[in-house]
TrEMBL record:
One of its GO terms (biological process) is rRNA base methylation. The keyword S-adenosyl-L-methionine applies. Belongs to the class I-like SAM-binding methyltransferase superfamily. RNA M5U methyltransferase family. Residues 7-65 form the TRAM domain. It comes from the Bacteria. It comes from Desulfovibrio gilichinskyi. This is 23S rRNA (Uracil1939-C5)-methyltransferase. Keywords: Methyltransferase, S-adenosyl-L-methionine, Transferase. Gene3D superfamilies: 2.40.50.1070, Nucleic acid-binding proteins (2.40.50.140), Vaccinia Virus protein VP39 (3.40.50.150). The active site is at residue 422. GO terms for molecular function: rRNA (uridine-C5-)-methyltransferase activity. The lineage of its organism: Bacteria, Pseudomonadati, Thermodesulfobacteriota, Desulfovibrionia, Desulfovibrionales. S-adenosyl-L-methionine binds at residues 298, 327, 348, 395.
Length: 467
């Protein structure tokens, strides 16, 4: 069905069937030679939609009505779904979510990286998360407003600034789901506004962390700098009284404008200086990681066990291998491999993070590791006496690996590269840049973020025999 003049234009209404999901979560349909992208759509649905943007070969549409439901639909389990911007796919059955994510990744790698579907692991379903709710070990909440209008929650779907009040989040374990409601109730009475509220704004971010191994909880409150931090002590006392497993309360300040949940200056820390998460290996061993208020750690603990084990299995290292762990964070994947190899050498540009990695190695009694504050692409920062790597592990940010670092990797010429990525587009790009010496020979994807559009990929790149 179209509008009266039967011409497709902005404002036209059409009936379409959703055929698939695009990377990023939009539904895809075809209509009169055009590809139509639709938000809030489930594959298999027949929808009545309104065209909101029209280009030569594609268009965007808004869902108006579900004419025919899909067999892939599921009932959302959160009262905030559809308004909160945190989850996109609670309305899609979990088995279908991981199927479509696997297909998206394979299609992206084939299109951008020209990686054939004959590659081992390509086209296979994504490995699902062991937990689909309560799986997160960290959640970052935003503040907005002042007084009775103050909200603690997540960005509204489709908005970069508006915050939806979230009393609890079912992606967190039960033990800490009521924390945002307690903080919001307290802050509405504090007579302090939020950082976005305007001059004199104070509250910025609430970070809730929990160890799935021990159950210990850490709360990190980030505010703007102030001559007085009078409301913090009362909030700390309230939360220690109300949250049985709360072991750490940290307060940091942040001056920078970027809206990120990281403190620039630690003002106070009450309780234990860190919580510890332990990940189990398939051989019966385990690795523990200290998590401090600003430390990076994979947000899905049970998923991280799957991800790290899959990296180890794909790498298939020899006991004599030397592993370079780039973008190593606090030890992460390299530390998980340490007992299977001769030596692990981690590289990070943050001194604080390198110190954390060294502490984690000590915690686990790992003596065959070394952590260096350096950028591998800057040869002057790298000790000359280091042994050459047999395997390089890469776990870069979404933007991928910088070109100078890729050039350095090519010059080091390890036998294998294990590339972990949360962005298949940049993984495909970097695999193409390495094709002079390396072929992507194995691939896997792991769903670390159920009900969202995000996915983790693992690629094994093997050096050509001619190289």
């Amino acid at each position: 069905m179209t509008n009266e003049n039967n011409a497709l234009a902005k404002g036209s209404t059409i009936e379409i069937e959703i055929e698939s999901l695009a990377f990023g979560g939009q539904g895809i349909a075809r209509h009169e030679g055009l590809t139509i992208f639709v938000d809030n759509a489930v594959p298999g649905q027949v929808l009545r939609c309104e065209i909101t943007k029209l280009k030569k070969r594609f268009a965007f549409a808004k869902r108006l009505e579900v004419i025919t439901p899909s067999k892939e639909e599921a009932t959302p389990f959160c009262e905030h779904f559809g308004i909160c911007g945190g989850c996109l796919h609670q309305d899609i059955a979990y088995g279908s979510q991981i199927y479509w994510k696997g297909r998206q990744v394979s299609d992206t790698l084939a299109r951008i990286g020209k990686i054939t579907k004959d590659t081992e692991g390509m086209g296979q379903d994504t490995i699902g998360s062991p937990l689909q709710t309560g799986y997160r070990n960290r959640m970052d909440f935003s503040f907005q407003g002042y007084g009775k209008e103050l909200s603690v929650g997540f960005k509204k779907r489709g908005s970069e600034t508006e915050v939806v009040s979230v009393s609890s989040c079912p992606l967190l374990p039960e033990s800490c789901r009521n924390i945002p409601a307690l903080v919001e109730e307290y802050c509405t009475k504090s007579e302090f506004g939020t950082f976005r509220h305007g001059k004199g704004g104070y509250w910025r971010k609430l970070v809730v962390r929990v160890s799935h191994d021990s159950g210990k909880i850490m709360i990190h409150v980030i505010t703007a700098p102030s001559k007085t931090h009078s409301p913090i002590k009362g909030l700390e006392e309230l939360l220690f009284a109300k949250i049985p497993n709360l072991k750490t309360f940290a307060h940091s300040t942040r001056i920078g404008r970027p809206d990120i949940a990281s403190g620039e200056r630690l003002i106070s820390l009450t309780g234990e200086p860190f919580i510890t998460e332990t990940l189990k290996k398939s051989d019966g061993g385990s690795v523990s990681y200290k998590i401090s208020p600003n430390a990076f750690f994979q947000t899905n603990s049970s998923g991280a066990e799957v991800l790290f084990q899959r990296c180890l299995d794909i790498a298939s290292p020899a006991a004599t291998d030397v592993v370079y762990d780039l973008f190593c964070g606090s030890g992460g994947i390299g530390m998980f491999m340490a007992s299977n190899v001769k030596k692990v050498i981690g590289f990070e540009i943050s001194k604080e993070t390198v110190l954390s990695a060294r502490e984690n190695a000590k915690l686990n009694g790992i003596e065959n590791s070394q952590y260096i504050t350096a950028n591998l692409s800057n040869e002057g920062e790298v000790p000359t006496e280091l042994p050459k790597p047999d395997i390089i592990v890469l776990d870069p940010p979404r933007s991928g690996v910088p070109a100078p670092t890729l050039e350095r990797i090519l010059s080091l010429a390890p036998e294998k590269i294990v590339y972990v990525s949360c962005n298949p587009s940049t993984l495909a790009r970097d695999a193409e840049r390495l094709e002079e010496k390396y072929t992507l020979t194995k691939f896997s994807s792991v769903d670390m973020f159920p009900h969202t559009a995000h996915i983790e990929c693992i690629a094994l790149l093997t050096r050509h025999s001619k190289s």
